[in-house]
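Look at a sample.

——
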Amino acid sequence: MTKRVIIGTIFGIIFGFVSWAVCKFGMGHTQPVSIEVVIIVFNGVLGFTIGISSLRWHWALHGLILGGIFGAVLGFVAVGTGSQFIWPLIFGFVYGFVIELITTVAFKAGVATTWLA
């Protein structure tokens, strides 16, 4: 369980920096530093949530649903700052799927058989 949480959190933070870079350099959006920090931390929390989740869904569905939920919330934050809703949602789905793929398939750190394992 600990391995899963650590891997999920690390890759969430990595994808947070990827989102920040895409937003800043790829799309040319200038955001306040506070929003940039929110993007990075929010993705780290997505990875952490994927890591601690004990839902027994297929890994792909699990990553897509959690990523979509987090992406939708971040999308509403984006709308509040004058950006578009759709991009955080799309990136949320992709990052949730990829974090779960890396955690479950590549590192073989699936959901524990018991909650406290």
Summary: The radius of gyration is 14 Å. Residues 67 and 96 are 4 Å apart (CA to CA). The mean pLDDT is 91. The chain has one domain: 2-106.
